[in-house]
Structures are given as C-alpha cells and as structure tokens.
Amino acid sequence: MATGEVMDYDAIFLQYVKSYAQYFLAHPDEAAYLTANFSYAYDKELVTKEEAFDPHFLFEKPGSPNQFHNVALNFALEQVLDQPFKGTQPIQVREGKPGTNPATWPAGWRWSPGQIPAVHPEYIPEQTQPGWWQPGSIEHLYQATKVLQIKK
C-alpha cells in the first residue's frame, strides 16, 4: 500500500466493509432498495445466507477464488448500518466481462467493488496497472496493493 503498511486478509476485508458503509451512507436510496428487495448479496456462485455473511467461507479454499466483496456489502448494510435485508431472493453483485453489454450483466453490477470508492484512496499507490475497476475504488486498492507473502 502507498503507506508501506501490509494488511492481512481481515484488515483488507475491513477496508471493504468501511468503503461499502460510507458509500451507502452517501446513497441511502440504494441501501433501502437493496435491503427492501433482496435477501443478501452473493458473487460468482449462489451461496447460502450463512455463507454470504462469513468472510472466511472462501478464504484460501482450494479451487476457489477469495471472493469477499459481497460479504463486505452484506456486513456494511446489516451490521454497520443496521439495515437488515427483507427480501426473499439474493442479488448477484459483480460486473460482467469487459467489452460486453452492461444490459447483460448481473442486476447488482453497480455495487461491484470496482464501482465503490475506497474509504482510504490515499492508500492506493500512484503507479498502478489499469484494470476492470474504476480508479480509486476498493477493488483498485486491493489489486494495486497485493503482495506475495511467504509463510515460514
């Protein structure tokens, strides 16, 4: 990260939660829409509500990517902002493939981590590779600050 600090999984997860909470505080209509119409958010594959609220469900699980932005969104709404989901169906929160028509993307694409501003954009290094995410987003923070660590 630009500050030189190294964050572990739980610390970066907390950055996602804080970023989603800040976003929904600034966009209360969107928070109300999500919580009134859906039961929780999920990412690539449909998971149970219990799994959708477990930040370690996919952590270092062989054969599965560490997908956790949906859990951070769920935490931000229910646990930080005290806005429980009341709907009966989950919503998929992820962007479609770059270059495809957004009309074909999952319904929750606008809340993907590539669209949500980072609560601490100053942590993002100035020299970063471009990607599918918006500059200054929480996904930009995550992708620009990942480092390889070796456990001994």
Question: How would you describe the overall organization of this protein?
Answer:
By secondary structure, the protein is mainly α. It has one domain. Helices cover 34% and strands 3% of the residues. The chain has 5 helices and 2 strands, in the order ααβααβα. A two-stranded parallel ribbon has the order 1-2. Helix 1 crosses helix 4. It is globular and about 45 Å long. The chain starts with 8 loop residues before the first helix and ends in a 7-residue tail after the last helix. The model has no long low-confidence stretch (mean pLDDT 90).
Give the helices and strands, then pairings.
Elements: H1 9-26, H2 28-37, E1 41-42, H3 49-52, H4 69-80, E2 91-92, H5 138-145
Parallel strand pairs: 1-2
Helix pairs in contact: 1-4
Compact overview of the structure:
The chain is mostly helical and 152 residues long. The chain has 5 helices and 2 strands, in the order H-H-E-H-H-E-H.
Question: Biggest sheet, in brief?
Answer: 2 strands, parallel
Question: Could you say which overall geometry the principal axes of the C-alpha atoms support?
Answer: globular
Number of strand elements: 2
Order of helices and strands: HHEHHEH
Helix vs. strand class: mainly alpha
Q: Let me know the average pLDDT.
A: 90
Distance from N terminus to C terminus (CA atoms, Å) equals: 22 Å
Characteristics:
two-stranded parallel ribbon; mainly alpha; about 35% helix; 2 strands; single chain; about 150 residues
